[in-house]
Specification:
By secondary structure, the protein is mainly α. Helices cover 67% and strands 5% of the residues. It folds into three domains: 21-150, no CATH class; 157-290, Orthogonal Bundle (Helix Hairpins); 324-417, 3-Layer(aba) Sandwich (Rossmann fold). The two termini are 54 Å apart.
Length: 425
């Protein structure tokens, strides 16, 4: 695969400021946004900026819009920059301690080996010491990871998406709880400060009452006059009221401390829930890898079944009616299997890799040879997919975008093109 950063002017080491998103080569924006920002975060930015990206807008179109908007320092790019900086503060702090390209590269290798990719990937791409060769190497790592992730089937993706949605909802709940806890903590601190002032005032008033009592003890000769007059009674009622107010304020302070302890317990519970969710996500990823192995075994079983049907001269379960199918993109390791499936379904497969190895100038020529076009959106360049879609629209040909480059998505696409079975009656 050719270098995606060919022709980019190398960064001069020693630059102090980290790169902004729009200062990074635009050919890296797709991998940065696809790896470091979830679709849920992108839609949240869209709602905040009133971009009109409703829930029914296709995920690929949402991703493409933000990739194309990242090249200029406008509202959308600045919102993504702010989200990336806030989301990956730990990784940014870790990489900020690196001052040479060798240190940055070694730290990236450690994170990659541990499976920690999104945060370190952003920290590396924006680091002032990252050279052209280092960013190209990191891009290659992430590119290959995208192929591995793209090999999972539709059920795995739905499970992972559901977990991401659930995690996002819990994250929002945790953020809301933190904000409420912070507000309540500020309220409690303000209340305690007011209570402290009132207690000091009460203590001062009690000291004054004690001084009055001392003066009363010294002037015993005037005790009877005070008892028979109204001044003594007034002082007694004042002291009693002050003691009542002190007891009341003490009780309110105790209730405030109890409420603060309850909020701290609730915050701990939410943190534990978030940890459990992270464990569930790891289990789901492991399950996805296991399902991928099962899918590969079923693919070979499907090929054996096709050979047995051909030997027995049976009618294929799916008939493409002699159609020529153009498949743009995908993984090179599965093309042979896909071609076998199409030929046994009475069709012909024509493949173009989307410009990775085959020049993109031949794409129009190859598209003209087909009756229908299938394009896996997770394993093809944006430009090739868009050109294929526009060509089919102009020439009234069937265009079917596939959610992934896996076998299940490919078979589903063929079923949309297949000739309906004739009625035996």
């Amino acid at each position: 695969m050719s270098d995606p950063l060919r022709g980019v002017k190398p960064l001069v080491l020693g630059t102090v400021k980290r790169r902004k998103l729009w200062e990074i080569d635009h050919r890296l924006h797709c991998s940065i946004i696809g790896t470091c920002l979830t679709l849920r975060e992108l839609r949240k930015i869209g709602r905040h900026l009133n971009l009109g990206l409703f829930d029914d807008v296709d995920e690929y179109d949402v991703h493409g819009y933000f990739v194309s908007s990242a090249a200029e320092p406008k509202a959308v790019a600045k919102a993504m920059q702010k989200t990336l900086e806030r989301k990956f503060q730990p990784a940014i702090r870790q990489f900020s301690r690196m001052t040479t390209e060798q240190e940055v590269s070694a730290s990236w290798d450690r994170c990659l080996a541990q499976g920690d990719v999104p945060g370190p990937y952003w920290a590396l791409m924006s680091h002032p010491a990252s050279s052209q060769s280092l960013t190209a190497r990191a891009f290659g790592h992430v590119h290959m990871l995208s192929h591995l992730v793209g090999a999972s089937n539709r059920a795995d993706i739905r499970k992972l998406t559901a977990l991401e949605v659930e995690k996002g909802a819990l994250t929002d709940e945790l953020d809301l709880a933190k904000r409420r806890l912070s507000e309540r903590d500020a309220e409690i601190r303000h209340l305690l400060a007011r209570h402290a002032v009132e207690v000091r005032s009460l203590n001062e008033r009690l000291v004054g009452a004690d001084l009055v009592q001392e003066k009363l003890a010294v002037t015993e000769s005037r005790l009877a006059e005070f008892e028979t007059g109204g001044e003594y009674s007034t002082l007694w009622r004042t002291a009693t009221e002050l003691k009542r107010q002190l007891a009341e304020q003490t009780e309110r302070a105790d209730r405030a401390e109890a409420r603060q302890a309850l909020l701290e317990f609730e915050m701990k519970r939410l943190k534990d829930s978030n940890l459990r969710l992270g464990k569930s996500l790891q289990d789901a990823l492991a399950e996805r890898e296991a399902l991928d192995d099962v899918l590969q075994s079923r693919l070979f079983a499907l090929e054996d079944m096709g050979r047995s049907q051909q030997d027995g001269r049976r009618t294929p379960a799916m008939d493409l009616g002699g159609r020529r199918i153009v498949y743009v993109g995908g993984r090179s390791g599965t093309i042979g299997h896909f071609r076998t499936l199409v030929e046994r379904a009475n069709g012909t497969l024509i493949h173009h890799d989307g410009g990775i190895e085959t020049t993109s100038l031949r794409l129009t020529e190859i598209l003209a040879q087909g009756d229908a076009v299938l394009c896996p959106v997770d394993c093809v360049s944006h430009d090739a997919c868009l050109r294929a879609k526009q060509f089919c629209k102009r020439n009234a040909k069937t265009f079917i975008p596939l959610r992934s480059s896996g076998i299940s998505s490919f078979v589903s696409g063929l079923q949309e093109i297949a000739v309906p079975p004739s009625d035996p009656g």
